[in-house]
Amino acid sequence: MIDFLSNQTAYIDDVANMIYKEFVEKTSSKMTFLEVKKFFSNTKMDDFPITLIALEDGKCIGTVSIFENDLKTQDLYKPWLASLYTKPEFRGKGVGQILITETLKVVKDLGYKELYLRTENAAEYYKNRGWVFIGNALDAKNEKVDIFKFDLKQEIGER
């Protein structure tokens, strides 16, 4: 089942833990766990930031967020898919794709015509799912990232 984190607040710690371990500890970010938890405690359903979660048997097995901007050097692009994460034991089972598909639907329902993302190491994953590479950019740490766009005018479904 996919739902908004704001509807399932009991999973805020789970999401904060996943994101902290994957996207904060593994980088040079200075955010603390409590800051990450506070951020996810304030996600919404119809305004950014928005976080979706994948639930199975009462456990949170994955998450994805929608940010107004996920790359400050590219502020002309809005909104962004961000922080896609599936627990390792559930990878390869379509959880990430289901989260992406639901994210596309949410963004389209909000009236946007496209969605962007940045990736350092998953370009092929997104290319294989209908995302179009639009270029490279430098992030705030001067590291190269790939930028992709998904055209929400096309049919949204399994890719």
Word description of this protein:
Helix 1 crosses helix 2. The chain is 26% helix and 30% strand. It contains 4 helices and 7 strands. With 159 residues, the chain is α+β, with helices and mostly antiparallel strands. It has a single domain, classed as 3-Layer(aba) Sandwich (Aminopeptidase), CATH 3.40.630. Residues 2-157 form the N-acetyltransferase domain. One of its GO terms (molecular function) is acyltransferase activity. Keywords: Acyltransferase, Transferase. Its EC number is 2.3.-.-.
Short description:
26% of the residues lie in helices and 30% in strands. It is α+β, with helices and mostly antiparallel strands and 159 residues long.
Q: Rg, please? A: 15 Å
Helix content: 25-40%
- Shape call: globular
Number of helices: 4
Order of helices and strands: EHHEEEHEHEE
Q: What is the tally of beta strands?
A: 7
- According to CATH, the fold-level topology is Aminopeptidase
Number of discrete domains: 1
Average pLDDT? 92
CATH C-level label? Alpha Beta
- CATH architecture designation: 3-Layer(aba) Sandwich
Head-to-tail CA distance between termini: 19 Å
Key words describing this protein structure:
single chain; 159 residues; alpha+beta; Aminopeptidase; four-stranded antiparallel beta sheet; three-stranded antiparallel beta sheet; 7 strands; 26% helix; 30% strand; globular; GNAT family N-acetyltransferase; acyltransferase activity; acyltransferase
